[in-house]
Structure formats: structure tokens, C-alpha cells
Design goal:
The protein is built from seven helices and no strands. By secondary structure, it is mainly alpha-helical. Helix 1 packs antiparallel against helix 2.
Length: 135
């Protein structure tokens, strides 16, 4: 990984730190010396060693990125809300309008109590995701 192929710089850096901390190759230098030799901070060396221990000495898990379990902010759009917005878009537009527009849908979604207020761009993403075309 450190010599061939194309990998992100952060992965290569962590792999080099792990190689420098490898005890099977002999005596290991102090973390300050390793950090200076590799051009990283002492904190990086400490964190890589800590993560290596936490992952049960799994090299791939140590040098790779952590995958999030959940997004940082849960989406307020559920399948039920998507269905309600699409059902509203399938109805006849209000009097005085020939067709539904995203902004008109936004105004009508705001009037429905069960659906949270959605921006017109969010409504557009919902409809685009389901290949729904406003006519």
C-alpha cells in the first residue's frame, strides 16, 4: 500500500505509521522519533496506535476511514411523507392553475398538518427520486 497503487494520502500516512510501530521487525523507536521521521505529529502516531488496538489489530480497519452508523442529522423525509407529497402532486391543481409547480406544492404541503414544512427544492428531490414529472 505504501509503495504501489493509488491510495488516499491519509491511508498511506497511517500505513507508514503502522509499519514504523511494527514490533515484529525489531526494536521500535520512540513515538517522537517516528513522528519526526514520517513528518506527522506525535498525536497522529498515538491515535493510529490506539485505533490499531481498538480494532483488534485489524490493519484495514485501522488505516481505512470509519463508516458512520447513522447520518449526523436524521432525515425528516420518510416513505410516508414521500407518498403523501406524490399523492398531492397527482391530484388536480387548485383553481386558477393549469398544473402543479414546485412552489405551489410547497404552499399546499405547508397547509397539510401531518406533513412537515418542506422546501420546494426538497419536494423536487422527492419527485425526481421517484421519476415523477409534473405535467
Amino acid at each position: 500500500m505504501t509503495t504501489t497503487g493509488v491510495h488516499p494520502a491519509s491511508m498511506i500516512r497511517r500505513a507508514r505509521v503502522l509499519l514504523a510501530l511494527d514490533t515484529s521487525a525489531g526494536a521500535v523507536d520512540e513515538k517522537k522519533v517516528i513522528a519526526a521521521r514520517l513528518g506527522v505529529s506525535g498525536e497522529t502516531v498515538r491515535l493510529v496506535a490506539k485505533r490499531f488496538a481498538e480494532t483488534g489489530q485489524d490493519v484495514e480497519a485501522t488505516i481505512g476511514r470509519k463508516q458512520r452508523d447513522l447520518p449526523p442529522v436524521p432525515s425528516q423525509i420518510t416513505g410516508e411523507i414521500e407518498a403523501r407529497v406524490i399523492a398531492l402532486a397527482c391530484t388536480q391543481p387548485p383553481a386558477g392553475h393549469v398544473r402543479w409547480s414546485l412552489r405551489l406544492l410547497e404552499k399546499h404541503v405547508a397547509l397539510v398538518e401531518d406533513i412537515p414544512d418542506l422546501d420546494h427544492s426538497t419536494i423536487g428531490r422527492i419527485l425526481k427520486k421517484r421519476n415523477f414529472v409534473l405535467t
